[in-house]
Amino acid sequence: MNIVCLDLEGVLVPEIWIAFAEASGIPELRRTTRDEPDYDKLMNWRLGILKEHGLGLKEIQDTIATIDPMPGAKEFLDELRSLTQIIIISDTFTQFASPLMKKLGWPTIFCNSLEVADNGEITGFKMRIENSKLTTVKALQSIGYETIASGDSFNDLGMIQASKAGFLFRSTEQIKKDYPQFPAFETYDELMDAIKKAL
To answer: For residue 34, what pLDDT is reported?
Structure first.
């Protein structure tokens, strides 16, 4: 029994925080898990910047409404879902993910949640579980699944490493250089071929 575990941002949809950095004119918010391996540190830093600029959930959701999946992402997912089970495992938040899941045809996603005040200020975040991608893959393996994983960032490396097959997708040159043991792909066709071979 196989199950494919995919990252969301950078793999199926553009990076939400980069899009918001451009929309808000705050270039510091371009920093992502490709740049900062410590997710708690990254999120707390982001929340500090939002507070400083008086920005909340509504402003980010307005930007997300303008984001479309990467060209070919929905077709890739549709084909893959006809072959095997898929779970998107993301460090994003339910409040961000829903509009994007709709555009991708409602695939299953495991992600986290934001703590939001009545005035829309994001006051904190609740991680589903520590080290969620690796922990989820190990949990799936414990109930009889063999996992195949793909992602682009530091926080994907654990699940890629723990899976029977793991692939980098549209990753950074530095991550590809530091982890040459993982095949790295740039197109959905290449990734699809690799996953089919692993199934």
So the answer is: 85
Candidate list 9, 15, 152, 156, residue with the active-site label: 9
Structural domain harbouring 153: 2-13+70-112+128-198
Is 152 an active-site residue?
no
Question: Is the CB of residue 125 less than 8 Å from the CB of residue 93?
Answer: yes
Strand 109-116 to 122-126 pairing: antiparallel
Q: Domain for residue 83, yes or no? A: yes
- Segment 91-111, tens digit of pLDDT: 999 999 999 999 999 999 999
Of these residues, 7, 91, 152, 156, which one is catalytic? 7
197 to each of 6, 190, 191, 194, how far by Cα in Å? 16, 11, 10, 5
Cβ atoms of 108 and 73 within 8 Å: the answer is no
